[in-house]
Amino acid sequence: MNAASLVQRLAVNAQVKRLGVGAQRVVKVGFLGPLSGPVSSWGLPGLNGCRIWVDWINRTGGMLIGGTRHNVQLLAEDCGYEPDRAAEGARRLVQDHGVGLLMMHGGDTFRPVQDYLMSRKILTSTLLPSDLSPDTPYLIAPSEIHPLYNVTAVEWLARNRPDLRRVAMCSQTDALGLPSLATYRAAFAAEGIASVGEIRYAPETTNADEILRAMLAGSPDILCWCTSYEPMVHALTEAAFRSGFRGQIISCTADYYRRLVDRTSIDFMEGFLFQFPDFDDPELRDKAFFFNRPAEFFAEYNRRFPDSWSAVSWEYVATLDLWHAAVEKAGTAAPVSVLAAMKHGGLGEHAFGIAKWAGSDLFGNDNALIGDWPVVRITNGQARIVAFGSVPAWLQRHGGRLRDEMRALGLMWDQRHSGVSGELRIAAG
């Protein structure tokens, strides 16, 4: 396996004599994500990270493919997390521009374009492995394994705070929220933590105070926001602060968490658990991760795009890094060949270490790269990694429980899921 990082490959490429004058050929990459609207914090920061990556690659002469240098051209379409806009954007990127890789956020915006992309054998990436099925052979989840990694923070919490025994959860009823709800259900149940309230709300809901009141009715020790959108995470957290709640909060993401610290207090945010580190974290400094020299990337990102670092700022870049390695290994950017090179040997170099291509038990194919994932805790107003949890080890112990919870919500690949009512509902524990 080629263990070279992006930075290492760039250093080597910079020393290779350029063939011809400059990079005369172009390989095109498409970005189809939410660049506006309530999900934009999971789209635009990712595009910004890709811009840095493309600049780094092209600055050293481009990608070396089959002995010829190619510049990378990044083409972006804003879907706003709207299925119709996603379908239009996908067709423009594929038909008008001929992209060799299409990066998507996934979820409700992937489903309308699934048949179109798969029938054309377009190598497509998603941040949501719940998009995977036997009908998506050219769809990969190589950088984020949402929501599987959420189990690591629950496991850490149970180990370090065994006194916390009651949880209330909330989730929006879409392809982001429901798989997350199923995963948190399984994770808390595996630790013997009782659910005392479960709120499902429509994605367009904005009344955080109403949701919070319903969650607090069961007197929970823990409030879990699941994978609520960034505006709702902020609204719920601020509502909890105003309510006087001083227990544990856990969430998939905490984008722009410093704003929450400013709007609440350092003491209130102490111990807030989520899954996405800042890349200047000391725990990343000396690790031989595939995403090498993360602090350098973090510094350039914040210099060029200040106050916009989010959960996805690095994730599309991690996908590009894996794709780059596979293209050079295959000697071609042809999607089928690149996919074969990427999955050769069954292992891949995930952002946080070596991971395995797996997922057939949950998703119907092995196109998810599953490995370790960090647990992040806010301490004195600063996000810091407190542990790396093994997702494969958890699945080995509790995978059956997770499958049961996914099936209960109609989320398994072999189910036809017609959707869940978006009305505010409470499921008593």
From TrEMBL:
CDD domains named among the record's database cross-references: PBP1_ABC_ligand_binding-like
Keyword terms of this UniProt record: Amino-acid transport, Signal, Transport
Keyword Signal belongs to the record: yes
Domain Leucine-binding protein: 27-381
InterPro entries, per database record: BCAA_transport, Leu-bd, Peripla_BP_I
Keyword Signal applies: yes
Family label: Belongs to the leucine-binding protein family.
The name this protein goes by in its record: ABC transporter substrate-binding protein
Source organism: Mesorhizobium captivum
UniProt lineage: Bacteria, Pseudomonadati, Pseudomonadota, Alphaproteobacteria, Hyphomicrobiales
